[in-house]
Amino acid sequence: MALQELETLNRALFLTINATPATPAWLLAAARAIANDLIMSIPLILVGLWLSGDAHRRETALKACAVAFIALGANQLIGLVWQHPRPFVIGLGHTYLAHAPDSSFPSDHATIFTAVFLSLFARGRKRLAAFVLASGAAVMWARVFLGVHFPLDMIGAVCVASATYALVAPLWRHAGSPLTRVAVTVHRRVLAAPIRLGWLRP
């Protein structure tokens, strides 16, 4: 498919999903909450895994962070090489969420959710992975629905995060445990006082 045809399809899909002036206010409010607030579940999940004190959970959290940050770095490089305007920049559809007019492709939110989902799933955290997958899908829908992203921004984010995971996974098999031990050592030194008081696990 030619690039122009793909962009035409992208815009048509966007207009199919995008909210309109007839959309109920309660649905817009719900979409804003999903688009803005569900991302906070990611640090809560990863911090919870780390603070559990379990070595496997800590390595899972560290791996998810590594994949997410590397994927976000790739997003920045893509944005520098290819600036893709957001729908409201080109006057397409309706916008119900304030956002900077930076490059839309790929979505950082979708990248984070996908990176964390893949990391949790691969490490056997199936229930948490299912929650992240469902939350990520909701966020992807909401951000297109509210007019700040195109559908292909989300597909591109999934591809970037998946490619990043594929690159990181074989390296992690060799470096994951040593990196986790270093991180645990830092954790025990920096948080020595609350650990001694029994507030945190060593």
Tell me the name of the CATH homologous superfamily of the domain at 34-174. Phosphatidic acid phosphatase type 2/haloperoxidase
The parts where pLDDT drops under 50 for at least 5 residues are none
What's the CATH architecture name of the domain at 34-174? Up-down Bundle
User: Can you give the helix content as a percent range?
Assistant: over 70%
- Overall pLDDT: 96
Instruction: State the major sheet.
Output: none
Please give the alpha-carbon distance between the first and last residues: 54 Å
Described by the principal axes of the CA atoms, the overall outline is: elongated
Order of helices and strands: HHHHHHHH
- Total strands: the figure is 0
According to CATH, what is the topology of the domain at 34-174? Answer: Vanadium-containing Chloroperoxidase, domain 1
Supply the number of helical segments: 8
Task: Identify the CATH class of the domain at 34-174.
Answer: Mainly Alpha
Write structural notes for this entry.
The protein has 202 residues and is mainly alpha-helical. The protein has a domain at 34-174: Vanadium-containing Chloroperoxidase, domain 1, CATH 1.20.144.10. It contains eight helices and no strands. It has helices at residues 3-17, 25-37, 41-51, 55-81, 108-122, 126-145, 151-190, 192-196. The longest helix has 40 residues, at 151-190. The radius of gyration is 19 Å and the shape is elongated. The protein starts with a helix and ends in a 6-residue tail after the last helix. The model has no long low-confidence stretch (mean pLDDT 96).
